Structure formats: C-alpha cells, structure tokens
Amino acid sequence: MKVLFSLLSILTVSIALSQNSENKLINLSDIKFCDLKVSDLKKQDPNLQEIAILEMSLCPDGFVTDSRFENRKGYVSKLYPGVIFQKYNNRDLISKVRLTKEFKGNLPDGTYINMAKLSAKNVLDKYPTFNSWTSRDCSDFLALTNNETYFYVKLDKAKKPRYPINEKYYLTKPIEGIDIIIDCYKTP
Length: 188
Known about the structure:
Blueprint lengths: L1 H18 L6 E2 L10 H7 L4 E4 L20 E4 L6 E5 L6 E6 L4 E3 L5 E3 L5 H7 L6 E2 L6 E5 L3 E6 L12 H4 L6 E5 L7
Parallel strand pairs: 1-6
Antiparallel strand pairs: 2-3, 3-4, 4-5, 5-11, 6-7, 8-9, 9-10, 10-11
C-alpha cells in the first residue's frame, strides 16, 4: 500500500511539473478562440499578466492602429509559454495571438513549429502559398502572410534598396514573431 501511495505521489508530482514546464508543447487547435475571453484566462491563471507589446505590423510611433484588436497590449500566462493573447478593442474576447521565440507547439491548423529554430525558408516550406512579403513603410519588420497568420522577420535597414524585397537574403533570417488574427465573424 505504501509503495502504491509513493508511486501515485511521484506520478502526480511529475505530471504537475511537466504541465508547468517552460518546454510544454502548446496545441493552439485545442483552444476555442471564438469563445475564449480574457476573463476565462484569468480564471485558469490568477497570475495572468497584462504587458505592453511591440506591434510588428504597425509603425513604432503608435499613430497608426489596427481596429481588429487592442493595440500594444497583451496578456501572458505561464500556462501558455510563448503565447501573448490580445483582445478586441471593446470586448473581453480574444482576437489575436502573438507567438514569441519561446513558443513550441502546433498552430491552429495543426502545423508543428519551434519558434527558436524557425526561419523564413521553413515557413515557405510549410506554407508555399505564403509567397509574398508585406510591410508598412514605417514598420521594422517584413511579413509572410495569408492575412490571418503573419510570420515576421526583422527588416535590415542597411540593405538597399528596400524594394524589391531581396527574398534570397530574407529567407535565411529567423522568424521574430507570429501573429494569428482570429476572425469569428467570417461569412460562409
């Protein structure tokens, strides 16, 4: 009986430790984004923190905004390493997710990525239809996108000319962040 209790205790502790590990794989397809609210995240994790974030698709001066989400503010939880949640401007509902270098897991479409090792070439290998680069003239980043998911590389301002994009050069660059815009209002 003592041996069984000891084994159960060890198993419980190891499960708890693995669930809180920073190496935890996140499966974004398990999250029901069109139902997820900041208040739900706070119930899951009372230590949910509000943070300021850099919007990679916007100008750093803060003048231009994106009405699809609350700009330059997000929420982080130790339950979701490498994930920053952002909400709609006037609603509690999550409308955007930023993935950072700490993210390791599956995107909403099931594709596995390890942000620490992801390059622009890897993105095009996984998503050949993301074959155009976009950027605002004032942004410090270039994006490979399908207008729902944005894979960002840091713009090299010393590289002249800026346009046309030197794709061969930027394919070797690491992905600095991924934005996933959640659209709960698509028409069929």
